[in-house]
Amino acid sequence: MKKIIFYSYLKCSTCRKAAKWLKSKDIQFQLFDIVKEPPLVNYLNLAIKQYSDDKKRIFNTRGKAFKTLDLDINSLSSEEIIQLLLSDGKLIKRPFLIYEGKKVILGFNEIEYAKQFM
User: Torsion angle of alpha carbons 77, 82, 83, 88, nearest 10°?
Assistant: First the structure.
C-alpha cells in the first residue's frame, strides 16, 4: 500500500477536492489538519529541497496570512522559512501531501495526482 500523508485545512475547497479524488480511487491516506498540526520539520525540509528553485511555491500565496507578510521569500534561509511556516499553518500551500515519505505534492492537480498514484 502506498503511504500518503495528507495535510489539509477543513475550509479549503481545493483540499476537499483532493481528498474526494483520492477516496474515489480507493487511495488511503493519513489526514492531518494543517493549522492544528503543521507538517513535521523533516517534511518541510523535503519541500524546500524539492522546490529549491522556487521556494515561494511552498507558500499559500493567495491566503490572507501570506498577504500580510512583506517578505522576499527567496532571501530567507531554509531555517527561517521553516520557522515562518510552523508559526502559521495557513501559510503553507495546501493540500500538502507526502508520498512514500520521499516526495511532496503541493496543491491539487488531477493529472499530477493520477501520474503519482495510479
Answer: 130
Q: pTM for the full model?
A: 0.92
Torsion angles phi and psi, residue 114, rounded to 5? -60, -40
Structural domain boundaries in the chain = 4-117
Please give the chain's pLDDT, 118 residues, in tens.
679 999 999 999 999 999 999 999 999 999 999 999 999 999 999 999 999 999 999 999 999 999 999 889 989 999 999 999 999 999 999 999 999 999 999 999 999 999 998 8
Q: Which CATH number does the domain 4-117 belong to among 3.60.15.10, 3.30.2130.10, 3.40.30.10, 3.20.20.140?
A: 3.40.30.10
Give CA–CA dist 29/83, Å, rounded.
26
Contact between 46 and 78 (Cβ < 8 Å): no
